[in-house]
Amino acid sequence: MIDGGYGVTAARQSVELSVRVRIPLVTPFIIIKNKNMSPSTKIFFAIIIAALIIGASIYFALINSAKISVLNQINQTTSTIPTGVNPSVTTTISKATSTTSTTLVTDTTSWKTFQDPQTKFTFKYPINFLKNIPKITVFDCDVNSFTKECPSLGTGATSQTIIANGLNACLYEKSAISKGNIYLNHYYVVATEFGCLGLDLVTLTTNCDSLKGTDNYNQCVERNTNVIPQIFKTIESTFQFNS
User: Fold this and answer.
1) Fewest Cβ atoms nearer than 10 Å: which of 13, 81, 156, 235?
2) Mean pLDDT of 76-87
3) What is the rounded CA–CA span in Å between residue 167 and residue 118?
4) What is the pTM of this model?
5) 189, 168 in Cβ contact below 8 A?
6) CA-CA-CA-CA torsion sign (134, 192, 174, 237)
7) Count of domains for the chain
8) 187 belongs to a structural domain
9) The domain that contains 196 carries what CATH number?
10) What is the predicted pLDDT for the residue at 210?
11) 146-158: per-residue pLDDT in tens?
């Protein structure tokens, strides 16, 4: 997360479980004024209405509690970029994050393999490329929303729907500058049959603006605009669930 967390208000458009129930409004006052009802009948209907009101209150309270729990789960998954870093992004890195490269890294034999023991979700990544320990979080969500249009995280992160090795997912990207370096945060939400799977990946690269006028500037720009996007695309191509 950048500056405290991806707050995946994850999606206020889907995870917030907005359920509205309309109950016909039959007030106790109307029942009391009805002269055709016996006292026992009035009491019976009054009890039914009271039960409906109490039941609806408890239902919405539970929904709200579940919503808060889901959002808290998502917030806890993306706290890997140090707080206090400058979230502004330079022109150089803006070009890098807006560049989409379809070229993949051809040799991944030396890459490490990550497997989550609970979900059996696996992927490969280069040694020393990630600056965080990969962490998988599974949470309830509206799976369809993550396969059609990525819900807003409310953090300013750019988002796009992707298909990673046949898996429908949303990719959220954000960058932050700290001491001449740039943290690149890729947060994936993969739609699965059992809910949504969150994966947070962070890498660190040089802020090329600090190298302007030196021999290393062009090499830095090449890495940020082409090499790093290629690596992330290749990582995505290894996403899979092992049986």
Assistant:
1) 156
2) 40
3) 18
4) 0.61
5) no
6) positive
7) 1
8) yes
9) 3.40.1000
10) 87
11) 777 888 877 788 9
Q: What is the mean pLDDT of residues 153-167?
A: 87
3-state DSSP percent of the chain in helix, strand and coil, to 5:
35, 25, 45
> Taking the CB of residue 156, how many other CB atoms lie within 10 A of it?
11
Question: Would the pLDDT of 237 be above 50?
Answer: yes
What is the percent of the chain where pLDDT is above 70?
66
Residue 31 lies in a domain: no
- For residue 4, give both structure tokens: 């405290």
**Phi-psi group of 120: left, alpha or beta (phi > 0 → left; psi -120 to 50 → alpha; rest → beta):** left
Q: How far, in whole angstroms, is CA 224 from its chain's centroid? A: 24
Residue 195: phi and psi, rounded to 5, are 130, -150
d(CA 86, CA 75): 20
Q: How many angstroms separate the CA atoms of 136 and 231, rounded?
A: 20
Which residues constitute the domain of residue 187? 82-241
Note the maximum CA span of the chain: 95
Q: Does any domain span residue 147?
A: yes
Residue count of the chain: 243
* 35: its two tokens: 């002269």
For residue 95, pLDDT over 50 is answered with no
Position of tokens 């034999």? Answer: 109
The pLDDT value given to residue 57: 73
Let me know if residue 93 belongs to a domain: yes
Place of tokens 């959002």: 71
Cα 200 to Cα 23: distance, rounded to the nearest angstrom: 42
| Element of type H or E holding 82 | none
Q: Dihedral (C-alpha) 215, 220, 221, 226: value to the nearest 10 degrees? A: 140
Instruction: Count CB neighbours of 74 within 10 A.
Output: 25
